[in-house]
Amino acid sequence: MTSSSPPPRYALLRASALAIASLAMGIAVTGAVARATVLAWAVAAMALITFGATYHLKH
Question: Residue 34: which region, alpha, beta or left (left: phi > 0; alpha: psi -120 to 50)?
Answer without folding.
Answer: alpha
